[in-house]
Amino acid sequence: MKSFLQYFFVVLVSLISVSFKKKKCNTIKEDAAYLHIAMKELTDVMVHDIYSPPVASRTYAYVSIAAYEVAIHANKNYVSLAGQLHGLNHVPEPDANKTYNYELAAVHAMLTVARALVISEDSIWACDSKLLKQFKSDGVAEEVYENSLAYGKQVSDFILAWAAKDRYKETRALPKYAVADDDASWKPTPPAYMKAVEPHWGEIRTFIIDSAQQFKPLPALAFSTDTLSRFYKEALAVYNAGIDLSDEQKAIANFWDCNPFKMNIDGHVMYATKKISPGGHWMNITAIACKKVNADFVRSAEAYACVSIAIADAFISCWDEKYRSKVIRPETYINQFINDAWMPLLQTPPFPEYTSGHSVVSAACAMMLTKIFGNNFSYADSTEMEFELPPRNFNSFSEAAREAAISRFYGGIHYMPSIENGIAEGERIGSFITKKLITVK
């Protein structure tokens, strides 16, 4: 009798468990694993496709916003970004008479937008197909599955139509950067002498900030070759730091390099090394933070959307200044006026110097992540492990942002004013966005 009762109890518990699992999967799966897998796949594809930092930032934003706009229907405490982001009107809502799995719909919307914005769309398609099969194996009912796919597609189509009006396509046809003959202006640098990246990015529609010029930084230092001038002294500081770097300073510079396309020369052979973009690094930090606090799928979608918007607007603001001031890079200046044999630790990026993109973007991201996860948020940043660099530990997002900024000085690719004013620019952008962007009622 006891044995029968034990058996009956086990069967009853199993049935309850299966019933609960099916009910849960038909509504919301609290674990955000699928969302994180989809985001990592997008990052890997953009690394493979060699997306420039600005273009990567745009892609992250639209993909993340699509996921968020679906996810919010799983939790009534969250609100749409429609009416808050420039040009984004009422986003399609689910049919009240149908049942959905909003995580499935959000992941599908996210990857459908991604597939339209990347080159290697087959890789995104394969990831989407794999995750959709996983949802089915988790027990999502057929009707719920079909409803969710349809809604995800509906939102993704809406987001892509919105994205098509941000002037990105128009900037593809604008004139390329014209290299000037004067000593002060930016010029391509060795070893690849690549053309200027995205000279018209400041003309892209912003997401939250009013315009690319809203947080225009202090004017760049006046160019001078006079050894008593401020400009010469700032260049000399980069030079002196570069020839006396400590092992820790080298480690910091390499950790935050985030160069999507580094050209390597080995004798007569030249080959490229691909790495994560600055925006991709901060999106990965967002994933690390979400996992540390066990953020559910909706909160994780919120974090991705908010951080990606900060990244996107920070790049638009920074790039607007870069191609206004067109400041010469330390490598070019030092080789011409201080030491023609000097080389920076890091490869000089193919765009003007002022302001430092890492400084602007990192400061803005740190403010957004602090708003979401709080001050003194300690974590281990393992982002660069796949690029054979060890993790680094931080006690806060602002600490990481400051290290990311100073890494550009150690790397020999930015003057200190570009870093300091870049941080100030990023903090102003971050402060504005965190105050204006509303996600929770």
Structural class: mainly alpha
Number of strand segments? 4
- CA-based gyration radius: 24 Å
Main β-sheet description: 2 strands, antiparallel
Shape: elongated
How many angstroms does the end-to-end distance come to?
A: 55 Å
In what order do the strands lie side by side in the largest sheet?
Answer: 1-2
Using the coordinates shown, work out and report the CATH topology of the largest domain.
Vanadium-containing Chloroperoxidase, domain 2
Uncertain regions spanning at least 5 consecutive residues: 1-29
The CATH class name of the largest domain reads Mainly Alpha
Number of domains: 2
Helicity level, as a percent range? Answer: 55-70%
Mean pLDDT reading: 93
Q: Tell me the CATH architecture of the largest domain.
A: Orthogonal Bundle
What's the total helix number? 15
- Strand proportion: under 5%
Topology, please?
Elements: H1 2-25, H2 33-49, H3 53-71, H4 102-117, H5 121-137, H6 142-163, H7 168-172, H8 230-242, H9 247-255, E1 262-266, E2 269-273, H10 278-292, H11 297-325, H12 330-337, H13 357-373, E3 379-381, E4 392-394, H14 397-410, H15 416-436
